[in-house]
Design goal:
about 120 residues; mainly alpha; three-stranded parallel sheet; about 40% helix; about 10% strand
């Protein structure tokens, strides 16, 4: 379970990282006390985190895309977070304000802003 997993040594992303923020939101939603986590390292480089994980230093939360190369090589294992709603990322639509938006974009924005 997630409760058991977080008792293991954890390698976390650095403060300000979107992955760290999302991890904290998931753990809080599961009523896991962030102060009681066994964090052995806080690192800002995903490649370093993958290599430390492969060496058995700790467990890490990361996107499957980031870990795919080492998963395929059999150097690390990947486990999806089952029954965890993936609603923790905010997506932004951006465009150059000096360029007139296409009418199709206006229709899209109208739909997205009024969708439930």
């Amino acid at each position: 379970t997630l409760q058991q997993l977080v008792q293991e040594p954890l390698i976390m992303r650095e403060s300000g990282s979107g992955v760290k923020h999302n991890t904290e939101l998931i753990l809080q939603a599961e009523h896991i006390d962030l102060e009681k986590l066994n964090i052995v390292a806080s690192i800002d480089n995903i490649e370093v985190i993958k290599h430390l994980t492969a060496q058995g230093i700790g467990t890490a939360f990361m996107s499957k895309i980031a870990a795919e190369d080492m998963i395929v090589q059999g150097r690390i294992l990947s486990f999806p977070l089952e029954n965890i709603p993936h609603q923790y990322r905010h997506l932004y639509l951006v465009w150059n304000k000096k360029i007139t938006k296409p009418k199709l974009l206006d229709y899209f924005l109208e739909h997205v802003l009024h969708a439930e």
